[in-house]
């Protein structure tokens, strides 16, 4: 079995992310990735889209190792993207690591993961999914 070797892409410095805050990383294709600085300066990465109604997670409130979506206050784990009960759903997570003061994301995931997820459409032309 031939395991894939991970190529890491530097995306920012830890200090570029506010404590208990987030920074949005744009991608060439697909939605951006939100990089979070949680409790104890732990760093996590999720697709910048809540699984509920598509809210921008990078604009949410970070507490501990969780983020509250700014639209409807869903709480998601930064560790794995899972919604906290009673809500059900999962945000797409991305592999990340910190070396020194630099934050790295998996380059292959940045280029290929979750490209089919679209931004929510709001306003009078939005189609209901209910």
Mean pLDDT figure: 92
How does the major sheet shape up? Answer: 3 strands, antiparallel
* Low-confidence regions: none
Beta content: 25-35%
CATH topology: Rieske Iron-sulfur Protein
How many discrete domains?
A: 1
Strand order of the largest sheet: 1-9-8
Rg calc: 15 Å
Write the CATH homologous superfamily.
Answer: Rieske [2Fe-2S] iron-sulphur domain
Counted by DSSP, the helix tally is 1
- Give me the CATH architecture, please: 3-layer Sandwich
Give the H and E element order.
EEEEEEEEEH
Secondary structure: number of strands: 9
Structural class: mainly beta
N- and C-termini, Cα separation: 44 Å
Helix content: under 10%
SSE map:
Layout: E1 8-13, E2 21-25, E3 33-37, E4 43-47, E5 61-63, E6 66-68, E7 75-77, E8 96-99, E9 102-106, H1 107-112
Antiparallel strand pairs: 1-9, 2-3, 3-4, 5-6, 6-7, 8-9
């Amino acid at each position: 079995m031939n395991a894939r070797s991970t190529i890491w892409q530097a995306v920012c410095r830890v200090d570029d992310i506010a404590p208990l805050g987030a920074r949005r990383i744009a991608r060439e294709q697909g939605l951006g990735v939100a990089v979070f600085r949680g409790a104890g300066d732990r760093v996590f990465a999720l697709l910048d889209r809540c699984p509920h109604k598509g809210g921008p997670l990078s604009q949410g409130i970070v507490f501990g190792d969780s983020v509250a979506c700014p639209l409807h206050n869903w709480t998601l784990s930064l560790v794995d993207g899972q919604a906290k009960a009673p809500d059900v759903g999962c945000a797409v997570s991305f592999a990340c690591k910190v070396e020194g003061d630099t934050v790295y994301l998996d380059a292959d995931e940045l280029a290929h993961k979750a490209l089919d997820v679209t931004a929510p459409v709001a306003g009078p032309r939005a189609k209901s999914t209910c």
